[in-house]
Design goal:
The complex is a heterodimer of chains A (about 100) and B (about 475).
Chain A: H1 3-23, H2 27-51, H3 58-88
Helix pairs in contact in A: 1-2, 2-3
Chain B: H1 8-23, H2 33-55, H3 57-60, E1 62-63, E2 68-69, H4 71-92, H5 103-122, H6 126-144, H7 151-182, H8 191-195, H9 200-217, H10 224-232, H11 235-260, H12 269-287, H13 293-314, H14 317-348, H15 358-361, H16 363-377, H17 383-397, H18 401-427, H19 440-458, H20 461-472
Antiparallel strand pairs in B: 1-2
Classes of the chains: A mainly alpha (about 100), B mainly alpha (about 475).
Chain lengths: ~100, ~475
C-alpha cells in the first residue's frame, strides 16, 4: 500500500460525494454526499501524515477536528430537515420552492 | 498557547454567549428581550476594548500560536462588532414578540457567530480558519432558520445549509491538499516551503480554499444561496449576514492570498479579477428583475461584494485601503437600508408594493431610505461615493482598466433598481395612511447609520486615514521565528 493507493481511494470518494451532492434530489442523499467529501479529506490528511510528513501529528489532529465539526454540522442539517418535514411532509428539494425570483 | 491574552475580546464574548444561553431557560419570550440588551451591551464593550488594542499596540497586538492580532484584523473586528450591536438592536423590535422565541439563544448564536468571525479575521493557520469558518456557518444556519413556524425561514436555512456544507467540504479537501504541500497547517513562514517549487497539490488546494471563501463572500458563481437565505431569514439576521460574515471572509481572503501566500509563488489575480467582474455584473443584472425588497437588497449585496473584491484583486496597499474604506461605509448604508425595510416589512411584508407611498405615510423613513439607496448606488456626496472612488481608483492604478470601467457601468445599472424603490415610495399612492411603526432602538440605529453615511461622505479624511493606518501594518510575517 503506497500513498497513491490512498489518494486514489480518497479521490474516488470525493468524486462520488460530489456527484451525489450535485445530483440527488433528496436532502438526506445530499447530506450523505457531503459527508463522503468530508471523509475523503480525512483520508487524505491521514495518508499525507503517514507517508509525506511522518514527523508530528498535525494531519491526524486536523482530521479529528474535521470529524467533530462535520458531525455538528450534520446535526444542524438534520434539525432543519425535521423542521421542514413537519410543515411540508417532504425531504425532496424540488418541493422546497417557496422562495423564487 | 502564547498570546492568548490577545484574544480577550473573543473569549469574553464566548463566555457571555454561553451565559445567555443558560439564562434563556429562565425567561419567556417577552421578558427575554432584556437578554438581547445584554448581548448588544457585551458586543459594545468588546468593541470598546478594541480601542485599547489600537492605542497600546505593544500590549494588545502580536502573534499567537494560530492567530495574528494586527491593525487589519482589529479594523475588521470593529466592523463585525458594530454590525453585531446593530443587528441585536434591530432584533428587539422585530415583528411581534413571539417571532423570535428564546431570545437568549438567539443572542447567543449571534454572539458566537461574531466570535467566529473575529477568529477568522485573525487566523493565520488552516485549522483555525476551518474551525472559525464553521463556527460562523453553523450559527448562521440556525439563525436563518430561527423562525421555525415560518416555512420561508426553514426553506432559506435549508438551502443555505446545503450550499454552506458543500462549500465547507470543498474547503476541507483543499486544506488537506495544502497540508500535503506545506507539511503543517500554519501559513506563517511558508515562503521556505515555496522556494522548493510550487507543487500542483498546493495550487489545487489554494483554488479549493478560494472556492470555500467565495461561497461565504457570495462571489459569483457561488452566490445562488444568497437571495433565498436572505429572503427567508428574519430581517435583522439578513442585515447581519449581508455585512459581517462577508467582511470577515474578505478579510481572511486578503490575509491568505495577498499576504501569507507569497505573490511570486502563486498568481491568482487574473482569476479573481474575472470573479469580481462576474460578481458585480450578475448581482446587478439579477437585482433589476426583483419585486421583493429583501431579495433586491440581497442581489445588491452580491454586487457590492463584487465592488469590494476589486480592492482584493489589486492586492496592493491602495487596493486594501479602498476595500477597508468601502467595507466601513457599507456597514452604515446597508444597515440603514435594511432597517427602513424592516420598519415597513414588519407589518406589510417586503414586496415592492408595500413601499407604495411611504413618503406620505412616514416621510422621514422614505427620505432616509432614498438617502441610503443613493449611497449604495454611489452618488456623491454620500459615503458610498467615497468608498467606490477609492476602490475604482485602486483598480485604475493597478492597471485593471477593464475592471474599473465595468464597475462604473455596473454602478450606473444599479441606479435603476435602487431608484425603482424610491419611485414606489414617492410616486405611488399609499394603500393606507398609517405611519410605519418605529421603536426607539430602530430609530437609534437609523440615526447612527444616517450620521455615519453623511459624515463619511462629507468629511472622509479621518476615515481614509484610519483605513490607511489599518492597511499598512499587516504583521511582518517573515520576521516571526
Amino acid at each position: 500500500m503506497s500513498l497513491a493507493h490512498y489518494l486514489a481511494v480518497s479521490g474516488l470518494l470525493f468524486s462520488v460525494g460530489l456527484f451525489g451532492a450535485l445530483t440527488r434530489r433528496n436532502v438526506i442523499g445530499i447530506l450523505m454526499g457531503i459527508e463522503l467529501m468530508f471523509n475523503a479529506a480525512n483520508l487524505n490528511l491521514a495518508a499525507f501524515n503517514r507517508f509525506l510528513h511522518p514527523v508530528g501529528v498535525a494531519g491526524n489532529a486536523v482530521s479529528l477536528f474535521i470529524m467533530a465539526v462535520a458531525a455538528a454540522e450534520i446535526v444542524v442539517g438534520l434539525a432543519l430537515v425535521m423542521a421542514i418535514y413537519r410543515n411540508l411532509n417532504t425531504v425532496y428539494v424540488e418541493d422546497m420552492n417557496l422562495l423564487k425570483g | 498557547m502564547d498570546g492568548l491574552r490577545l484574544l480577550l475580546p473573543e473569549l469574553g464574548l464566548s463566555v457571555m454567549a454561553l451565559l445567555l444561553m443558560a439564562c434563556d431557560l429562565f425567561f419567556d419570550a417577552r421578558r427575554g428581550k432584556v437578554l438581547m440588551g445584554f448581548g448588544f451591551v457585551a458586543a459594545g464593550v468588546a468593541l470598546g476594548s478594541l480601542g485599547l488594542a489600537y492605542n497600546a499596540p505593544d500590549t494588545y497586538q502580536g502573534l499567537g500560536t494560530l492567530w495574528a492580532v494586527d491593525p487589519l484584523g482589529l479594523y475588521f473586528k470593529a466592523i463585525i462588532l458594530a454590525a453585531t450591536v446593530f443587528a441585536l438592536m434591530l432584533s428587539v423590535d422585530y415583528k411581534s414578540p413571539d417571532a423570535i422565541r428564546h431570545p437568549g439563544s438567539f443572542t447567543a448564536l449571534v454572539l458566537l457567530s461574531a466570535v467566529g468571525q473575529m477568529f477568522l479575521v485573525s487566523a493565520t493557520d488552516l485549522l483555525l480558519i476551518f474551525l472559525s469558518l464553521e463556527l460562523v456557518s453553523i450559527s448562521s444556519f440556525v439563525l436563518v432558520g430561527y423562525e421555525r413556524r415560518d416555512l420561508k425561514s426553514s426553506e432559506g436555512a435549508m438551502k443555505y445549509f446545503l450550499f454552506g456544507a458543500f462549500s465547507s467540504a470543498i474547503l476541507v479537501y483543499g486544506i488537506s491538499l495544502m497540508y500535503a504541500a506545506l507539511g503543517g497547517t500554519s501559513l506563517i513562514d511558508i515562503a521556505p516551503a515555496m522556494d522548493r517549487g510550487v507543487s500542483t497539490s498546493f495550487v489545487v488546494g489554494c483554488v479549493m480554499l478560494a472556492v470555500g471563501f467565495g461561497f461565504k463572500v457570495s462571489m459569483a458563481p457561488f452566490h445562488f444561496w444568497v437571495a433565498d437565505a436572505y429572503e427567508g431569514a428574519p430581517t435583522p439576521v439578513t442585515a447581519y449576514l449581508s455585512i459581517a460574515p462577508k467582511a470577515a471572509a474578505l478579510a481572511v481572503m486578503l490575509r491568505v492570498f495577498t499576504h501569507l501566500i507569497p505573490h511570486t509563488s502563486l498568481d491568482l489575480q487574473g482569476i479573481f479579477a474575472f470573479m469580481a467582474f462576474l460578481t458585480m455584473t450578475v448581482g446587478n443584472l439579477t437585482a433589476l428583475f426583483q419585486t421583493n425588497v429583501k431579495r433586491l437588497l440581497a442581489y445588491s449585496s452580491i454586487a457590492q461584494a463584487g465592488y469590494l473584491l476589486i480592492g482584493f484583486v489589486t492586492g496592493d496597499t491602495i487596493g486594501r485601503e479602498g476595500l477597508l474604506m468601502y467595507a466601513m461605509v457599507y456597514v452604515f448604508m446597508n444597515l440603514g437600508a435594511f432597517t427602513v425595510a424592516m420598519a415597513v416589512g414588519n407589518e406589510d411584508g417586503y414586496e415592492l408594493e408595500a413601499f407604495d407611498g411611504l413618503a406620505r405615510r412616514s416621510l422621514g423613513l422614505a427620505l432616509l431610505m432614498a438617502f441610503f439607496l443613493l449611497s449604495l448606488a454611489g452618488i456623491p456626496p454620500m459615503a458610498g461615493f467615497i468608498g467606490k472612488f477609492a476602490l475604482f481608483a485602486a483598480a485604475v492604478k493597478g492597471g485593471y482598466w477593464f475592471l474599473a470601467v465595468t464597475a462604473v457601468l455596473n454602478s450606473v445599472v444599479s441606479v435603476y433598481y435602487y431608484m425603482s424603490v424610491v419611485y414606489h415610495m414617492f410616486f405611488k399612492a399609499p394603500r393606507t395612511l398609517e405611519p410605519a411603526r418605529t421603536d426607539v432602538l430602530m430609530t437609534g440605529t437609523l440615526a447612527v447609520a444616517a450620521v455615519g453615511v453623511l459624515v463619511i461622505g462629507l468629511y472622509p479624511e479621518p476615515f481614509l486615514a484610519a483605513a490607511k493606518l489599518s492597511a499598512d501594518m499587516l504583521p511582518a510575517v517573515s520576521s516571526h521565528p
